[in-house]
Amino acid sequence: MIKHVQKMSKKKATLKDLQIRVGVHTGPVLAGVVGKHKYSYDVFGLTNTVANLLESEGEPSCVHISDTTYELVKDNGLDIGDGKQLDIGGAFFTFHTHLVKGPPVRRMLKGPPVR
User: Fold this and answer.
1) N or C terminus of the chain: which is more exposed, having fewer CB within 10 Å?
2) Nearest Cα to 27, choosing from 62, 72, 58?
3) In this predicted structure, what is the pLDDT of residue 74?
4) What is the pLDDT of residues 96-115, one digit of tens each?
5) Kind and range of the H or E element at 55?
6) Residue 57 in contact with residue 86, Cβ under 8 Å?
7) Taking a C-beta distance cutoff of 8 angstroms, is the pair 102, 77 a contact?
8) Burial of 16 from C-beta contacts in 10 A (0-12 / 13-18 / 19+)
9) Looking only at Cα atoms, what is the longest distance across the chain?
């Protein structure tokens, strides 16, 4: 998503200041269809709230991830830096975050390229 927005903002002058922030948290959610006349699918729960907070507190053109998500992706070769401490509801819930700054780092392969 971030690369697409950057690509679009280079192509069109009206989008030159367009930036995107992404927040990702891993955990359980409750999802369902709500509404009587106009149906809408929605996701609820603390996981959704944390992801929303990560997005709103993140830096433009970066993916802001929770420590829980970091533990799942840390060995995938992503360029991940430290984020900050975030609080939900004051001292109710505090957690450390990380910023994914770039795509996976290409690993060097031994031997000639396969054709």
Assistant:
1) C
2) 72
3) 85
4) 889 887 665 554 444 455 44
5) helix 46-57
6) yes
7) no
8) exposed
9) 62
